[in-house]
Amino acid sequence: MNLPACWTSAIDQPDHKFAELARTRQGVLTKPPGSLGRLEELAIALSAQQRSQTPAVDKVHISVFAGDHGVCSEGISAFPQAVTAQMIANFAHGGAAISVLAKQLNANLEVVNLGTVGDVPQGLAGVIDEYIAPATGNLASEPAMNEQQVAAALDAGDRAAERAAQNGAQLFIGGDMGIGNTTSAAALACLLLDQRPEQLAGPGTGLNREGVTHKAQVIEQALIRHGSDRSPLALLASLGGFEIAALTGAFLGAAARGIPVLVDGYIVSVAALIGVRQQPALRDWLHFSHRSAEPGHRLVLDALAADPLLDLGMRLGEGSGAATAVPLLRSACVLHNGMASFADAGVSGAS
């Protein structure tokens, strides 16, 4: 299988020299040490990742990956599958949550169409065609992707990271769109975390209690079919989605190019966990934006040793939670770069 180089290439560590310089600067700014809390930690981490004494996240690149799921034939979603294609058009026309947030942030937004059951109009602004198939296979009864398909999805993500690098991005955000993708994410998380489907299946687009129970039963069928192979690539091909694989490739590709990643909610965090299981060094390039209302997200975050910045009860996807957290990263940077030191300001420090 011809996989992108990021799947196996080593990822450099952030530069600890710049982390120490940033930590020293934080210690002499006109404030009690540690009084800005997580904002100080963010500035230090971004300094090391960007190899800069003046970290910044002014240039944000957002790639939303969209693809349909064959498991929708099992009746696991409250919304029809046609919504995936319809939402791609909505992204392009500026009507989706991530479109509005990207405009507010002056971020570069692109939508990567990996394959939908419904028709997507041609020539939509900001939509990149990376067509693989109309949908994945029904993971309850067959592998979601064959070798060529999972490689193509990973490659599409890596190309998104390359576009971000070419555009001088200081931060990468990956978003997801795909009716049925919480079922795929939950199935993956079950085997990544050794948990039962009942622990990880949630309402997704709005299922009631009976719908969630049925969803867990479908996931159980998928786990039985899959068997015992826990390797990241086998899991991704068997239980993943086009957009989940592309997100994994994008995160590995961004880290390999020295671009920090801000991780969104449940689906995106599962993709990040697969990437970390494949390349543990990826973890040092990840920031976590928010805690999703999806019940399985907490366990995925625990596995990543992640403490998200926000907890707003969000569960939309699209990268919207990550985009909402960008102003916090920007505040961390401007405070780090702009505050005066005690010596500069003529202020007495602590004895």
TrEMBL record:
Key word Transferase present: yes
Pathway where this protein functions: Nucleoside biosynthesis; alpha-ribazole biosynthesis; alpha-ribazole from 5,6-dimethylbenzimidazole: step 1/2
Alphabetical GO biological process terms: cobalamin biosynthetic process
Active site: 318 (proton acceptor)
SUPFAM superfamilies: Nicotinate mononucleotide:5,6-dimethylbenzimidazole phosphoribosyltransferase (CobT)
Keywords: Cobalamin biosynthesis, Glycosyltransferase, Transferase
InterPro entries xref list: Nict_dMeBzImd_PRibTrfase (IPR003200), Nict_dMeBzImd_PRibTrfase_bact (IPR017846), Nict_dMeBzImd_PRibTrfase_N (IPR023195), Nict_dMeBzImd_PRibTrfase_sf (IPR036087)
Gene3D superfamilies documented for this protein: 1.10.1610.10, 3.40.50.10210
Any one GO MF annotation of this record: nicotinate-nucleotide-dimethylbenzimidazole phosphoribosyltransferase activity
Uppermost EC category: transferase
Residues forming coiled coils: none
Catalytic activity: 5,6-dimethylbenzimidazole + nicotinate beta-D-ribonucleotide = alpha-ribazole 5'-phosphate + nicotinate + H(+)
Family listed: Belongs to the CobT family.
Job of this protein: Catalyzes the synthesis of alpha-ribazole-5'-phosphate from nicotinate mononucleotide (NAMN) and 5,6-dimethylbenzimidazole (DMB).
Protein name: Nicotinate-nucleotide--dimethylbenzimidazole phosphoribosyltransferase
Species annotation: Marinobacter salinexigens
Gene designation: cobT
